[in-house]
Amino acid sequence: MNVKQLEQYFIKELSALYDEEEAKQLFCLAAGQISEWNRSQLLINATTQLSAEQSSAYNYILLELKKGRPMQHIFAEAWFYGLKFKVTEAVLIPRPETEELIEWILDTVKTQPVSSILDIGTGSGCIAITLKKNLEQVEVTALDVSAEALKVAAENSITNTAAVNFIHSDILTYSSPSKYDLIVSNPPYITENEKKEIHQNVLDYEPHLALFVSNENPLLFYKGIADFALINLHPKGKLFFEINEYLGKETVEMLSAKGFTDIILKQDMQGKDRMILCNL
């Protein structure tokens, strides 16, 4: 079987779980891992015959994908903002939308420098570690309620040579005398009613603790983090959120009612309300 035939086989075998474009992307990721080919090299090698060893490796990945396992869990790694992160079922797989949040933060601090950052709900550590790598002189702290997630984040901190301080605590009950110039969070925000929109492999393999909130109180963590920020941000400090695309207006109103100013609601590349910046 050559490369093009194998790609078509992937598409056919994964049709129950993924559409054609998704399956092609997964095949491209598999080719990058096994054959070290990018998309252009895939096209160039379309008629290349695969060795028995390579075929076996591709087939293993296909079998795992058919079980619904995310590709990042099969490889136990994910790329985020040019950095490699270990991922397990204890942490969320980093998303491209969060890279946009990173970009917004880095653009902001170019003209409004900060010396301390707190990342709340750090998970794999992707936000905190990426910020530390790009802002080496800034002290970065990361908090999470999950001890297992913090183990992964600590490993990622070492692997990426980024010195981050980690705190094991629940932000809804955590108190601290420490103050920060910038607080950022991508907290749980998917309501129970939205579960039907979530891909099955996310439901089966990613931590619900980091994903879901009740229908009755969807802004639970945003309110808690905002209250923490009122006490723990320096004057004129900044609060960044990644948000539920359906709750942009409600989140802005909540922050305004708590006294935050200069609130900006920003859309992601897909045109969805996805990020907020406000000042104390």
UniProtKB/TrEMBL annotation:
**Pfam annotation, one family:** MTS
Keyword list (alphabetical) reads: Methyltransferase, S-adenosyl-L-methionine, Transferase
Keyword Transferase, does the record have it? Answer: yes
Mind telling me what this protein is named? peptide chain release factor N(5)-glutamine methyltransferase
Q: What is the lineage of its organism?
A: Bacteria, Pseudomonadati, Bacteroidota, Sphingobacteriia, Sphingobacteriales
Domain named Methyltransferase small: residues: 105-202
Q: Which InterPro entries match?
A: DNA_methylase_N6_adenine_CS, HemK-like, N5-glutamine_MTase, PrmC_N, RF_methyltr_PrmC, SAM-dependent_MTases_sf, Small_mtfrase_dom
Enzyme class at the top of the EC tree: transferase
Which NCBIfam families would you find in this protein's record? hemK_fam (TIGR00536), RF_mod_PrmC (TIGR03534)
